[in-house]
Design brief:
This is DNA mismatch repair protein PMS1. This protein is of the alpha+beta class. The chain contains ten helices and 15 strands. It folds into two domains: about 210 residues, 2-Layer Sandwich (Heat Shock Protein 90), CATH 3.30.565; about 140 residues, Ribosomal Protein S5, domain 2 (2-Layer Sandwich), CATH 3.30.230.10. α1 crosses α3, α2 packs parallel to α5 and α5 runs antiparallel to α6. About 5% of the residues have low confidence. The protein binds adenosine-5'-diphosphate and magnesium ion. The site of adenosine-5'-diphosphate (ADP) has 21 residues, from α2 and α3.
Length: about 375
């Protein structure tokens, strides 16, 4: 008798959802990315009880068309990608169509949305655990979308308990992540608040439609932070010999140029930070985890300031053929083509930059 059978659909959904939404950070990340993808210029993230009771994300983006209500929370339904080949020309954060469907499986979840033509009328959408639309009702709403996630992991007792236990740490982690989205998103107002039980609502931070990342950093970390920063503007060519099989076509030549832009602490003792807690990395403006890159930055900085760590805001401008974002469901792990060579070139360029600023006088840069 055959012992191998397909896992029943509902169970597959739950297994996979737990991989997309692994913690509080994944919820905030997925929802804020959806707002940015919808063209929002104003995003409010509201935590209740550090996120344990609820996370609400409201935007003033395009809203959701009634024609999409039925499919919006179904797995692998997305407005952003239709074939695998589209991945290299992708301009959006999302493309897997998994976040909303996963949240249906893992929390008490609803959406309120209104498009420009809807006036002050919006629609509340409620869903089954499977992501199937359960019902709609008319509510008052401005243009945009509000997604409400209550009692995250309510049906995964182990994860819920773990979340309750570590909620303070999780909340700090989520703030750190949202700092990165706030700093990179120019022209956007991103504000984050938290309401603790029986307490007042506190604003964690807020940006203000700033035209550049420097003003975003000032809003998030305070104007004083800027005093210790220098512009990061590195440009280098990858060695042709380090790319086996590389041809000398024009296309290849353009993909070999790497630019890293942003801001970094001056390499001066007293101007770094006690801990490496303010370090943000991006690939073409997408916030990513880049431990190897962080290590390279910190190593070079240490040769000037051994007692402290730098503030780093580094955005890698890469040809879309030079990396792969589809490595993990949360898309925060990026596979960089020829990473070893890139890190070596980066260290040299960074050493040159620090050598230039070694003795310079700090200046307010706003
Ligand atoms: P993905 O972002 O990968 O497409 P999601 O599950 O996050 O998958 O979202 C599914 C779809 O729902 C999106 O493709 C988008 O069309 C729509 N959507 C989600 N959030 C918003 C929002 N805040 N505003 C407008 N549309 C949204
Ligand atoms: Mg998404």
């Amino acid at each position: 008798m055959a012992t191998i059978k397909a896992i029943e659909g509902r169970s597959v959904h739950q297994i996979q959802s737990g991989q997309v939404i692994v913690d509080l950070c994944s919820v905030a990340k997925e929802l804020v990315e959806n707002c940015l993808d919808a063209g929002a210029t104003s995003i409010e993230v509201r935590f209740k009880n550090n996120g344990l009771d609820s996370i609400e994300v409201q935007d003033n983006g395009a809203g959701i068309s009634p024609a999409d209500y039925d499919t919006i929370a179904l797995k692998h339904y997305t407005s952003k990608l239709s074939t695998y080949d589209d991945l290299t020309s992708l301009q959006t954060f999302g493309f897997r169509g998994e976040a909303l469907s996963s949240l249906c499986a893992l929390s008490k979840f609803h959406i309120i949305t209104a498009q420009a033509a809807d006036g002050a009328k919006g629609t509340k959408l409620e869903f089954e655990v499977s992501g199937k639309l359960k019902g709609t009702s008319v509510v008052a709403a401005k243009q945009g979308t509000t997604v409400v996630v209550e009692t995250l992991f309510n049906n995964l007792p182990v994860r819920r308990k773990e979340l309750e236990k570590s909620i303070k740490r999780e909340y700090n982690k989520v703030l750190h992540l949202l700092n990165a989205y706030a700093c990179i998103s120019t022209g956007v107002k991103l504000s984050v608040s938290n309401q603790v039980p029986k307490g007042k609502k506190t604003i964690a931070f807020s940006t203000n439609h700033n035209p550049n990342t420097k003003e975003n950093i000032a809003n998030v970390y305070g104007t004083k932070t800027l005093l210790a920063l220098i512009p990061l503007n590195l440009k280098f060519e990858m060695e042709a010999s380090t790319r086996p099989g590389a041809t000398q076509s024009a296309e290849d030549a353009c993909s070999r140029e790497i630019r890293i832009v942003g801001h970094i602490s001056r390499p001066v003792v007293g101007e770094g930070r006690q801990t490496p807690d303010r370090q943000m990395f991006f690939v073409n403006s997408r916030p990513c985890n880049m431990p190897q890159l962080a290590k390279a930055f910190n190593e070079v900085y240490k040769s000037y300031n051994v007692t402290q760590s730098p503030f780093i805001f580094a955005d890698l401008k890469l040809d879309t053929n030079a990396y792969d974002v589809n490595v993990s469901p949360d898309k925060r792990t990026i596979l960089l083509h020829d990473q070893t060579a890139l890190l070596e070139s980066l260290k040299t360029a960074l050493g040159d930059l620090f050598a230039m600023h070694d003795q310079s006088v700090p200046q307010a840069q706003l």
